[in-house]
Amino acid sequence: MSNILKYIILLTLLSLSLYPAEKSDINKLKKITVATIDLDNHFKINKDLRKEAVRTINRYHYLKQKRTIVVDREKKKLLGTNELNIEEGLTIASNLNVRIAILVDSERILITNENTNVRRNTLSNNPKEYRFSNNYKIVFDSASNNIFTNRTSGTNLSLTNNLISENESEEERYEFRYNFNVVDIETDNILKEYKSISSNQAISTIQGISEYLEAYLSKMIFDSFEERNNNIELNFEIEKVSSDNRTNSISSRGEVTEGDSISFKFSPNRDGYLYIFALQNNGNMILMHPNDFNNFVNTGNIQKDEIEAGKNYIIPPEDSKFRIVVSPLPIDENSEIENIDSFYAVYMRRNQKWIVGQYFSGDGFKMVSRNRTTEFTFKLKKALKLKYEWQIEKIYLNVVSKLKDK
């Protein structure tokens, strides 16, 4: 055996011994599959809905998707029919090694003089409030017009969504309605459930499911990150101050209520760079650190992202003119999953300029586009797999409203 071949084998064995967990996790990610199961073969009638379903699945190509949509032949091969109930659809998904199944079926119902209501979401009129996500807002303690050069750039303020009223014909007519069930086959959880969706809202429902899955799959990947045994400590925690001024520190799991103020604290034992990602169920991913509030030094308006060992950091700073206040989402009747926000503090020895350069943008707390949330997390996972000097700490907050709290 040549010396070169021996050297190659030695390097291979060494890499397997150093990084078994990371390689195993990456292999697991390749098995993640999102598939749509057309229970009653209705996609043959509604071609546009089928195209949107295929587009939804194909957006996760970087996860090594093996299938775009469950084909009809699998129904006949396993169950001998094209007409399936939900249980049979889940059997198809299980046999095809699908992780997330979007089950779709239709029903033909009688429609008489139906009206669509107008729904509008409007921006807050309070100039001292800045909502940077659906669950959190910044409340300024004093007027400050110089925080942003462009207050709407890169932020997700409240989006206006107008649904035009339509007066249907008074004569009786039939219409297809759709039911959607989104199921995690491995955990047996119903992630989303939509009943009796009209034909003109079916495509937008699929698009909404796509946005939700961006956050769900991203969280799945982030949660697969394991803390490393390399003596790097971040001491990352979230401090909440309730409306009655009670203070509580959260280091792994906790609960926050509407009106609570929160701040992020960390004290690393190594110099380097820390990235804090806030991930919400609705698909928002926010870069809490570095940010434009904390990281500008006074000299020359130059941003300093590097963190120093032994130094105590807090977001927002103690002398800041703003607070981060909990503002919970409305109850999602289409989901049985709790409203959990996940916070991931990732330390790296060297600056990762590609994170902001390629994915996160905006002023203040930068955000990633909703349709690239999973793509970013997957790329971060791959970037870390051969690095030794990195660490992660995680905190999960259950966000509840005051009404539920009472």
Automatic annotation (TrEMBL):
Domain of life, per lineage: Bacteria
Record-given protein name: DUF4384 domain-containing protein
Species, as recorded: Brachyspira catarrhinii
Ranges for domain DUF4384: 256-328
